[in-house]
Amino acid sequence: MAEAKGKGNAREDAGKLVLRVALGLLILLHGIAKLRGGVGFISGMLAQQGLPGALAYGVYVGEVLAPLLILAGVWTRLAAAVVAVNMVVAVALVHMGELWSLSKTGGWELELQGMFLAASVALALLGAGRYSVGGARGRFN
């Protein structure tokens, strides 16, 4: 019985690894684009909302630092929560007009943002698992 449970846990941890790698890599690519192109457009959107433009630099935390932590499996729950907040802010600033829209192919216009948000919330709840630098019982994992 213990062996079957161990195999189940290994599969669960492998699933967490797949989720971490997918979310971490895909969000990191957005962060790399921001590193290359800057965050001026985000700063402008924040200013239009009456918020300090300097908050735009927080995108580097949500799209570079947090994904790197998620990929490594260090402070995964915290990093995933940061990504979730980042996605909520992105939807609020950039995509609110598309919130209730369908794409030309019939999917939700915000399916990518929705999937990133759902995956980050799932990781915040599940943690990194044993296939991580932090290990299954690592702090915040």
List the helices and strands and how they pair.
Layout: H1 2-37, H2 40-48, H3 58-72, H4 76-95, H5 111-126
Helix pairs in contact: 1-3, 1-5, 3-4, 4-5
Task: Describe the main β-sheet briefly.
Answer: none
Helix content: 55-70%
Q: How many beta strands in the DSSP annotation?
A: 0
Radius of gyration, CA atoms, in whole angstroms: 17 Å
SSE string, helices as H and strands as E = HHHHH
> Unreliable stretches, pLDDT < 50, 5 or more residues?
none
Percentage of β-strand residues: under 5%
Assembly context of the chains? single chain
The shape, in one word, is globular
Count of runs of 4 or more consecutive helical residues: 5
Mean pLDDT: 89
Give the structural class.
Answer: mainly alpha
Query: How far is it from the N-terminal to the C-terminal residue, by CA?
Result: 26 Å
Structure description:
- With 141 residues, the chain is an all-alpha fold.
- The protein has 5 helices and no strands.
- The protein has helices at 2-37, 40-48, 58-72, 76-95, 111-126.
- Helix 4 (76-95) packs antiparallel against helix 5.
- The chain starts with a helix and ends in a 15-residue tail after the last helix.
- The model has no long low-confidence stretch (mean pLDDT 89).
Main features:
mainly alpha, 141 residues, globular, 5 helices
Short description:
This protein has helices at 2-37, 40-48, 58-72, 76-95, 111-126.
